[in-house]
Amino acid sequence: MNNGKTKRTRARSKKTQVNVARVQILSEIVQKAKGGGGLARVQAQWEKGKFTARERINYIADEGSFQELDLLVTTRCKSFGLDKTEAPGDGVVTGFCRVDGREVAIFAQDFTVLGGSLGRAHAMKICKVMDMAYQNRVPVIGLLDSGGARIQEGVESLDGYAEVFYRNVKYSGVIPQISLILGPCAGGAVYSPALTDFVFMVEGISHMFITGPDVVKAATGEDVTFDSLGGPKVHASKSGVCHFVAKSEPDCFRQLKELLSYLPQHRWEKPHAAPTPDPVDRETPLLETFWGVDPKKAYAVHPVIWQVADEFKFYEVQDHYAKNVTVGFVRLGGEVVGVVANNSGYMAGALDIDASDKAARFVRFLNAFNIPILTLVDVPGFWPSLEQEHGGIIRHGAKLLAAYADATVPKVTVVLRKAYGGAYIAMGSKYLHSDFNLAFPAAELAVMGPKGAAAILYARQISSLRDPADREALRDKLAAEYSSMFATPYQAASSGSVDEVIEPAHARAKIIRAFRFLDFKRRPGSHENRGNTPV
Ligand code: HXC
Description:
Blueprint: H1 2-34, H2 39-47, H3 53-60, E1 67-69, E2 92-99, E3 102-109, H4 120-136, E4 140-144, H5 155-170, E5 177-181, E6 184-186, H6 188-195, E7 198-202, E8 207-209, H7 213-220, H8 226-230, H9 232-239, E9 244-246, H10 249-261, H11 302-308, E10 315-317, E11 325-332, E12 335-342, H12 353-368, E13 373-379, H13 386-391, H14 393-406, E14 411-420, H15 421-426, E15 436-439, E16 444-446, H16 450-457, H17 459-463, H18 468-486, H19 490-495, E17 500-501, H20 507-518
Parallel strand pairs: 3-4, 4-5, 5-7, 6-8, 7-9, 12-13, 13-14, 14-15, 14-16, 15-17
Antiparallel strand pairs: 1-2, 2-3, 10-11, 11-12
The structure holds hexanoyl-coenzyme A.
């Protein structure tokens, strides 16, 4: 009896030892894989003021929520010395986690492993996590820090990028996709973000370019720095590639969480409502004072948006780019609404190529993700110039017309002041099928401004006068006549182009009332996914 028991005990203890040894091996394998490109490279990453891929995920994820996938995947390429190179995780950490309690899929490129470059295995890891995000209807967050296509793997890395781009496009408008640029990103590492909905960059560490300064020098002879070629300032203000600039990585992660709070998990969901102590019928008398009696006075539209929004909060998108149009998120009575507003403080709020593109893409995003649109109009027209015509303002302005006409989400438009010509139509006008169109008493809805109209309508009468002073006086008189007839909201209100002329003090209450009614709106064609195509 005793003998048997001893044997069993010994056998159990041997099994335990074997299991302990196996667990030990697993722990060593995992530890090694998690070490990335080794201490020296990690040190170099820190010296550049950058976090490592794992530190970044830890920062973003709710504590203990990160579930990694494919930790042990590595490259199968043996060319150019890769057979002798350790490439833990093939240079990318992938998995899913919770952010402020919401599930998201996440991947973080590890610059310490082959410069975060993308080879076949690296690409397939990203694709796997994107597929899981799509199947489970959760957003994808990409943390990019990569030299682009892995040169040693040749066409396999290009094919890997093609697989990623394909998913960026197919899942566009179905699940939100957000890119954080956290290092020098080149080639494919910039095209994938450009296909996603929002791009963040961080001052001092983020760069985006198709090819780096050396190649630019070799090809064109131009001397450029990383910053002048593709730093955050350039992409936030000139190219329009970047939507948000952060001062540091922690600031970037904070902003990411704020953005996520305005987004749904997927296109069949509404963003979560947030109860607000701000009364829905709060009066907004300040809105009467922005331009006083001067119809030409420039003013920043932001305070107008703050006045209307819950708790005066506005989360602006692309604030440095095409400042003549202002876009972003607010909450109204707790519900998320996207705002598109002409900003008369810049270029008189006229629409140019960049403003048309910026507004068009934002409208497409809102429509794809079930977010109602509030349009605040104060637009003197499309910006007239040779440069704009040659640059294709017709083509770009058409994108805005198409985006509004396509959008089936609830649309409420308020004409604050000017609404002229094609730009009036483009900015969510009634017969482009906006749902509720309101106007302030100071609104002017017409084909063009009174002076321009008088100059065309009465050209012969005006030019028949010899004295320039007489000509000017007649032009002013005729412009005033035109203005009193057409540069008011009342002709539009009498034809139904404006549903109601409202007192500015009631703007918040009226807008929220309209959106509440539209909660029940049926959306013909909304089953079709139109995606958020780059424009
Ligand atoms: C393989 C790469 C790599 C790449 C960087 N590395 N990029 N390895 N393929 N694409 C490696 C470097 O050899 C180096 O390895 C390590 O990563 C760190 O790179 P450094 O150059 O030392 O870092 P840094 O000075 O910070 O410069 C970063 C960089 C630069 C600006 C990204 O490395 C660079 O210009 N890389 C090439 C960019 C590029 O042209 N990529 C191809 C794009 S074409 P060691 O062992 O020395 O530490 C592309 C095609 C897709 O992506 C297009 C789709 C439309």
